[in-house]
Amino acid sequence: MNVMQAIEKTVTNAGIISSITSTIFIILLGFFLRKKNIFTDKFGKMLSKVVLTVAIPALALNSFMQPINNDTLKEGMNVLLWGFIIYIILIFVAPLLYPKQDKDKKEVMGILTTFGSTTFFGIPIVGAVFGPKGIMYSSIFNIGYRVFLYSYAYIRMSGLKMEMKNIKKMFLNPVVIATFLGLFLWLGQNYVPHVTVQTMLNGLPGKGTSSVAFYRIDQTALWLWKPLNYLAQLSSPLAWLSIGVTLGSISFKQAASNKLSWYYSWNKVIIVPLFNLIALSALSMIGILPMSYVAIATIVIMMATPTATVASAYAISFNRDPVLASNASFLSTILSVIMMPIWIALLEVINNSGIIK
């Protein structure tokens, strides 16, 4: 299949196009409602809290309610390994992207470049495009992200030693709890008692029966899986509405006047995911870290997200160029909204052309 055929197949794929338009339209709706003062800035923050404390934990837990086999297990472990490797690489390399800045600003920009809004911005988009498997891979990938965000980033931005309260914050976060719980349940399902049930597909009875772990609630306890699934389905629209509200609350003119923020946004939304795409494709093709298209595309989308909210909060809380961090966060969000459909389409074209499978 040549490139033009791959592009044609992508733009005629109703699933991909509807995922892209859903993201854009709902973000624009949030932006419009904020500009009309129908939504307040406080309402946008409340939406964010609902997404991070309820919807995404439910999304992460439900994503692990699926069978395990050698291929998905091996690929999941490769995703986990890369999740640690890439952040170690970026911790050292990202500051080098700002050679003209002083040491302090170079460190701040390096941390902002390393850590994106993978949970709040990335996972809902991955879920909309790639479904449960994409969510599962994104949750596994995020383990390394959270370890370094709540340890290295906190220590460097605060100038303090790691505190017990931050360690608690790392492990008692609802998303982290749901991710680790889901991961352990997924990994352990072959070693616990099984029950024979009628096969269920998307909550509806299928043909035949299957033997599953007793805690596979998608098969054994629909009364529990259904409400969790409804909550999980809230994550994408609420997250996108909140992003739109955030964009509608900040002055674009003020943020756009800072050239360094534009340069940072280019690095964060284009250079970092491009490096991941090239590196993972190469490692997969030579067999060092083999991954499927869904796994690679999930990671690329996660790395194409704007500034992490926590990283921005560190900069503001510890007075580490707070204005610059706020402007960078705003502009990278705008650029990410523009680039995300392009990344999704590009990845689908690459997949259709057979470069990664």
From TrEMBL:
A GO-annotated cellular component: plasma membrane
Family, similarity comment: Belongs to the auxin efflux carrier (TC 2.A.69) family.
Transcription regulation keyword on record: no
GO biological process: transmembrane transport
Superkingdom of the source species: Bacteria
Protein name: Malate permease
Pfam families: Mem_trans
Subcellular location per the Swiss-Prot or TrEMBL entry: Cell membrane
Species whose genome carries this gene: Fructilactobacillus fructivorans
Assigned keywords, A-Z: Cell membrane, Membrane, Transmembrane, Transmembrane helix, Transport
Membrane topology value: Multi-pass membrane protein
Keyword Kinase listed: no
InterPro entries according to UniProt: Mem_transp_PIN-like (IPR004776), Na+/solute_symporter_sf (IPR038770)
Transmembrane segments: 12-34, 46-65, 77-98, 110-130, 136-155, 167-187, 230-248, 269-289, 295-316, 328-347
